[in-house]
Design goal:
With about 425 residues, the protein is mainly α. The protein has one domain: Growth Hormone, Chain: A (Up-down Bundle), CATH 1.20.1250.20. The chain has 16 helices and no strands. Helix 5 packs antiparallel against helix 9, helix 10 packs antiparallel against helix 11 and helix 14 crosses helix 15.
Length: about 425
């Protein structure tokens, strides 16, 4: 563990600062949109731009890296993300923010891909699991802490945008000053949706609809809370609780999925998430009202934590379930295909959810989550009746962050082996032979 931190501390520090800024920015834009009286539909449209950019960037980043290298691309996209944050405070309208969110999405997926490629290069079969665990802690922990910076200044002011840009710029320093050589970039090919469906119908359909639900969950949570008259501190608390609960639930639910039929775990967790979302609606009660008329938010916090606990590990379970039906050498390709399906669903999530909220009110947020979690559960029940469970000894549950890229899938200890890094003496011997 100490060796991992020693060799990769600069990367982890840089990614921590970026995720702190990213978590802060996501909540800030949602709250600011409410304060600016953006319609819910316009807000959802604007926030969906991030996932449009994420999808585009995932398809194009390999070209950029192959041309100019990891460090230059990382510096360029981190700088772009920093500039774009400031532009949000200058051009305040939904369409402009949509374009800026697209650029942010392209920048962030490029940063994730480069970081995960770097971690792959510094990993071996002995420590890949530890590397992925630290990476998850850094991502979730930093993002959760970033939520509390909402209390730094009023979202109406320009100072929050400057602070986010500052964090983005600071993230460049440890990465650019590292002595470590940049890795050789490996291009990952994925499966088409038709191939993925033939291999695992539940995996493909589950990823598609889970992406739809999860993009709405994270994009519109702050919007929902602001619409319900939560204070800035309360918005920080609820977004923090969702992120931390999702991180903590990965191991116990993953353990269940390795012990029992993974499809049953998917079905139980998705229906549990839908149930807790329904409970959150009832718990919301009169929270909208201030003062003595308003009900306590205690039960709402409890149910939103339970919802996140059941919902957030689901992509990793879907990934492990898909791997149950394919050979080990195709794990990464299948993971890339699942990410493609997830991205397609994520693009539409915030926009569709905001339209529902616009029609039936803020609790349309939870109704949307209930609907798509329910679809996954019902389809899982159907698949259990038409296909028997297969036991693949090479497949196991591995906790994965929601932002994992196809490159990052190689950090999964159950994927194909990675060669041990050559020592300096071995490299010199090879050069003499050549």
């Amino acid at each position: 563990m100490n060796k991992i931190l020693k060799n990769s501390w600069a990367l982890f520090l840089g990614m921590g600062l970026i995720m702190l800024a990213h978590g802060y920015q996501g909540s800030l834009l949602g709250v600011r949109a409410v304060k600016e009286d953006f319609s819910l539909t316009a807000t959802g449209f604007m926030l969906s731009g991030y996932y449009v950019g994420y999808f585009i960037g995932a398809r194009t980043i390999t070209t950029f890296v192959s041309r100019v290298g990891h460090i230059r691309v990382f510096a360029a996209f981190a700088s772009i993300a920093s500039i774009v944050v400031l532009m949000h405070s200058i051009f305040v309208n939904p369409f402009t923010w949509f374009i800026l969110r697209v650029v942010t999405g392209v920048s962030m997926v490029s940063i994730y891909t480069i970081a995960e490629s770097w971690l792959n290069d510094r990993s071996s079969n002995k420590n890949r699991g530890s590397v992925l665990s630290i990476y998850m802690i850094v991502l979730y922990g930093s993002m959760a802490i970033g939520m509390f910076f909402l209390n730094f200044s009023s979202p109406i002011n320009f100072q929050p945008f400057i602070l986010i840009s500052l964090f983005m710029s600071l993230a460049l320093i440890p990465i650019l000053l590292t002595k470590k050589k940049a890795p050789t970039f490996k291009k990952i090919t994925g499966m088409s949706l038709s191939e993925l469906y033939k291999v695992s119908p539940l995996g493909m359909v589950g990823s598609l609809f889970y992406g739809t639900a999860q993009s709405a969950l994270f994009s519109l949570l702050a919007v929902y809370a602001a619409s319900m008259n939560f204070t800035i501190l309360e918005i920080s608390i609820v977004t923090f609780l969702v992120a931390i609960s999702g991180a903590l639930s990965q191991w116990p639910i993953g353990k269940f999925s390795d012990t029992f039929d993974r499809r049953r775990v998917i079905i139980y967790t998705t229906f549990a998430a839908a149930f807790f979302a329904l409970c959150a609606i009832f718990a919301s009660g009169s929270m909208f009202y201030d003062g003595m008329l308003g009900s306590s938010k205690k039960w709402f916090y409890i149910f939103i934590v339970l919802f996140a606990f059941a919902s957030l590990p689901m992509f990793a379970i879907i990934f492990a379930h898909t791997n149950d039906y394919i050979p080990k050498e195709k794990f990464v390709a299948a993971g890339a295909g699942l990410q493609f399906a997830f991205g397609l669903g994520a693009i539409s999530g915030p926009f569709l959810c905001s339209m529902l909220m616009n029609v039936i009110g803020p609790n349309g947020y939870f109704i949307f989550l209930i609907f798509f979690h329910g679809i996954i559960g019902i389809f899982g029940v159907y698949r259990m009746r038409v296909r028997e469970t297969q036991d693949n000894p090479d497949s196991q549950f591995t906790p994965l962050p929601q932002t994992i890229t196809p490159i990052g899938m190689e950090l999964n200890p159950s994927t194909e082996p990675i060669e041990e890094p050559l020592k300096t003496e071995e490299v010199c011997d090879e050069n003499r032979i050549i």
